[in-house]
């Protein structure tokens, strides 16, 4: 009788113990998962926080310049090729991707040249240099009297415009899309074939 009752008591006691152990186990697992989550969140908000990529124009030079003026008919045949040295900086701890885009050459708000910028990837903390050649399509300005007088005066005001769409993503969880626009006003001096007065404006938009 005594033995039986003590066995029963032992069995009753064992069952809550098992429950308790399972609860502790679940609790620890939940805490570990929560901790991993918090660590990822903190990393995502600090070290790996996506930052904007920036595009900078390092220099612009003339690689080709040929002018022929037809004074009698006030027409100008001109070929200008500009070499634009750009660099795109990725300040992030992860790589950034950017889409196919274009660089434009403008004369008084009119597009007179275009060059493709093929899409690509920039590794973490790296700056990617890029050389683009923009060629003026003179046929669009053949009988533009303002252009004719700028060329005869020897100073042609032009503008280069690039727009880069970049994407930075961390574990597909923290994502940033950036559009960085670079617009440079410059003057091409015909007599000495130089680029002067270059003023660039940079804009980034998230
Ligand atoms: C500009 O280039 C075109 C085609 O490449 C050529 O026909 C023209 O003669 C060139 N103009 C000058 C002034 O060299
Ligand atoms: C980007 O341009 C390349 C050629 O320069 C082309 O093969 C590719 O399909 C383009 N990608 C997109 C997403 O348009
Ligand atoms: C771009 O051109 C400059 C000289 O104008 C050269 O030093 C540089 O290496 C070139 N960069 C690339 C990526 O071709
Ligand atoms: C080129 O000529 C323009 C005016 O004709 C002048 O302002 C500029 O300083 C010259 N540039 C160089 C590098 O000589």
Automatic annotation (TrEMBL):
Keywords: Membrane, Transmembrane, Transmembrane helix
Transmembrane regions: 24-48
Classification via Pfam families: LEA_2 (PF03168)
Residues of the Late embryogenesis abundant protein LEA-2 subgroup domain: 86-177
Lineage: superkingdom: Eukaryota
Gene3D superfamilies per UniProt: 2.60.40.1820
Protein name as annotated: Late embryogenesis abundant protein LEA-2 subgroup domain-containing protein
């Amino acid at each position: 009788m005594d033995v039986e009752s003590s066995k029963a008591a032992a069995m009753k006691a064992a069952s809550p113990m098992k429950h308790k152990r399972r609860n502790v186990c679940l609790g620890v697992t939940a805490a570990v998962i929560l901790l991993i989550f918090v660590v990822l969140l903190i990393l995502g908000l600090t070290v790996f926080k996506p930052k904007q990529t920036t595009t900078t124009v390092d220099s612009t030079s003339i690689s080709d310049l040929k002018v022929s003026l037809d004074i009698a008919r006030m027409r100008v045949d001109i070929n200008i090729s500009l070499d634009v040295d750009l660099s795109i900086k990725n300040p992030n701890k992860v790589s950034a991707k950017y889409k196919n885009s274009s660089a434009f050459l403008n004369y008084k708000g009119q597009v007179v040249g275009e060059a493709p910028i093929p899409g690509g990837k920039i590794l973490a903390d790296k700056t990617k240099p890029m050389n683009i050649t923009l060629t003026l399509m003179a046929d669009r300005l053949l009988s533009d009297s303002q252009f004719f007088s700028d060329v005869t005066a020897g100073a042609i005001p032009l503008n280069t415009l690039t727009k880069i769409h970049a994407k930075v993503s961390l574990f597909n969880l923290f994502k940033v899309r950036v559009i960085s626009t670079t617009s440079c006003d410059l003057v091409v001096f015909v007599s000495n074939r130089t680029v002067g007065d270059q003023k660039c404006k940079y804009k980034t938009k998230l």
